[in-house]
Amino acid sequence: QLQENQDEIENMMNAIFKGVFVHRYRDAIAEIRAICIEEIGIWMKMYSDAFLNDSYLKYVGWTMHDKQGEVRLKCLTALQGLYYNKELNSKLELFTSRFKDRIVSMTLDKEYDVAVQAIKLLTLVLQSSEEVLTAEDCENVYHLVYSAHRPVAVAAGEFLYKKLFSRRDAEDDGIMKRRGRQSPNANLVKTLVFFFLESELHEHAAYLVDSMWDCATDLLKDWECMNSLLLEEPLNGEEPLTDRQESALIEIMLCTIRQAAECHPPVGRGTGKRVGS
User: Fold this and answer.
1) CATH number assigned to the domain covering 1-133
2) Looking at residues 17-29, what average pLDDT do you find?
């Protein structure tokens, strides 16, 4: 009897889906399309056994191409709710491989709110599986740390931090108390210098620091470590910094001190919202 009841309910749900959703997710009115996507996101999260499969997910994938930003935004927030739950990751693999390129391209969306949520979604994808995103996919997000729009840059800074800076080896726990050149931050500071030099936007250190300020404050404020990298002799087997790398480190250090002292983003970077005089 229970099985019969469940079958009956699923048939009703299916009838509602085919009778209402399939027609309305392409409605002429953007608000209705947005409601449809928001709701199917909730269905997939609440009843993943029935709804979290590619015959339903494809509607969200297709709607990511919608003309209206508010509808594209709902697609991304619906997907974030699914990727956030690690238990659902295996059911999302096919969808990820099929629509990943579209999500990456949305990081350059003309609507900043959409771009921010696309980067946040990719950060969740990154956490669910390291292998999914190619080096090229990651590069496309990395360079957004230099964006003039602060929310986009901060989201990209968090993505960059999760990808390049948040790995910590088990043995690091034993050297957490070490300071200066021997601290775990030493390698991370070097990684930051290498990234900055590779990106070849040498006059924009302040932008890079501001982008990572919220997620990597402890690293960016470890001036003792930066000083010792500049002043102390390299440890055994350690490559010394080149003159170019030292100059870059000094520039980054200067920007972190200014950011800590002044507490505001660099000139030319804003939230994109108009502020009354």
Assistant:
1) 1.25.10.10
2) 96
Q: Provide mean pLDDT across the span 245-259.
A: 96
Kindly report, residue by residue over 53-103, the tens digit of the pLDDT. Answer: 999 999 999 999 999 999 999 999 999 999 999 899 889 999 999 999 999
Structure tokens at 44: 């997939």
Q: Which long-range contacts (CB under 8 A, 24 or more apart) does 165-170 make?
A: 165/191, 165/192, 165/216, 165/219
Confidence check: pLDDT of 275 > 50: no
Give the pLDDT confidence score for residue 167 in this predicted structure: 63
* 232 against 72, higher pLDDT: 72
Question: Residue ranges per domain, the chain?
Answer: 1-133, 180-262
**b/e for 114-134, b at 16 or more Cβ within 10 A?**
bbbbbbbbbbbbbebeeebbe
Size (the chain), residues: 277
If DSSP states are collapsed to H, E and C, what string results for the chain? CHHHHHHHHHHHHHHHHHHHHHHHCCCCCHHHHHHHHHHHHHHHHHCHHHHCCHHHHHHHHHHCCCCCHHHHHHHHHHHHHHHCCHHHHHHHHHHHHHHHHHHHHHHHCCCHHHHHHHHHHHHHHHHHCCCCCCHHHHHHHHHHHHCCEHHHHHHHHHHHHHHHHCCCCHHHHHHCCCCHHHCCHHHHHHHHHHHHHHHCCHHHHHHHHHHHCCCCHHHHCCHHHHHHHHHCCCCCCCCCCCHHHHHHHHHHHHHHHHHHHHCCCCCCCECCCCCCC
Determine the Cα–Cα distance for residues 79 and 69; give it in Å rounded to an integer. 16
Cα-Cα-Cα-Cα torsion 100, 103, 107, 108, nearest 10 degrees, comes to: 100
Region of poorest pLDDT, from 21-30, 104-113, 130-139, 155-164: 130-139
